[in-house]
Structures are given as C-alpha cells and as structure tokens.
Design brief:
Layout: H1 12-28, H2 31-41, H3 45-52, H4 55-66, H5 69-78, H6 83-93
Helix pairs in contact: 1-4, 1-6, 4-6
Length: 101
C-alpha cells in the first residue's frame, strides 16, 4: 500500500506529475547527478525539456530515482515525503493506479 501523500489523494495524477517534475529538478540541481542521468537516458540538454513534457518520461525519472536507494532517500527527504510516496507516484505515471489510503 502506498504511503498517503501530503497532498490530497483526490488528484493522484497531479501529485505524481508534480513529484516527477520535482525529481527532474532535484537531479538537475547537481551537475554530477544531471550528467549521470543524461548519460544513462541518452538525452542531451537540447531534448531534455521536450522529453520532460511527457508523463511517461517523468515516470522514467522516478524509476531512475527508485533504482538508486541513496538518491531516492535524498530526494524524498528534500520533499518531506516517505520514499514510498515517490514509488507510488512512479506507479501512477506508469498507468498503475496508486493504492493510497
């Protein structure tokens, strides 16, 4: 079961999108994080903005965070959220409805 987000669960898609955008911003704040993300994703600065407009891309950003526990925890702490909320947002962006209470 997903942890209940700080935002009302009435809008899980909006919450998930907000978290995806915030995660991308979190990655972009650190040059090493951004460089690694771009290397792994195959994207460059020139097409990152276009990709960010796609919900599936934001889900991939959250998947990237989920694959690195240290990074996931750092991001979750920066947003004052439990890591499980980030995973639920990832699931929502992937088309799997989150099981928020």
């Amino acid at each position: 079961m997903c942890a209940k987000p700080n935002r009302p669960a009435k809008d899980p898609a909006g919450f998930a999108t907000d978290i995806g955008v915030a995660a991308l911003g979190f990655i972009a704040q650190d040059e090493r994080r951004l460089s690694r993300f771009l290397d792994i994703s195959g994207l460059g600065p020139q097409n990152l903005r276009k990709a960010a407009a796609e919900p599936t891309f934001l889900g991939a950003v959250l998947e990237y965070l989920a694959a690195d526990e240290k990074l996931l925890i750092a991001f979750a702490e920066s947003r004052n959220l439990p890591p499980e909320a980030i995973l639920c947002a990832r699931d929502a962006l992937a088309g799997r409805p989150p099981d928020w209470p």
